[in-house]
Predict the 3D structure of the following.
Amino acid sequence: MAPQMQVTFDCADVPTMVRFWAALLRYEPEPPPPPFSTWEEFARDKGIPEEMWDAWGAVIDPAGEGPRFFFQRVPEPKTAKNRVHLDVRLSRREGSEGMEAEVARAEALGAQRGDEHDELGSRWVVMRDVEGNEFCIS
């Protein structure tokens, strides 16, 4: 079996990041493994201390096509520009109106709009998620 792609975020507030990225990507929070019906039930069974229950979380593509996004709580804040970032790519058919609608949807979810670029036939808007991580909508 070939390895599968996972995108991992270090963050301060896992539940907020899970909600943001699930909504932005139209993903869903990853359900707990069987036979558990909730993550709380899983954590209790595994002896995970209650203060760690929100220290990690993931979102998955409901169609099973995109990568899993994993979020882990870390104590240190983000300190510099990302060396790797994500691009949320739209179909070319959606045009400028579709891009503006997606940027507005991201802002309504808590993202901040940055610079806009139009170069060599490509257009994109730099955004920051709820913890300041850069991503682009193109």
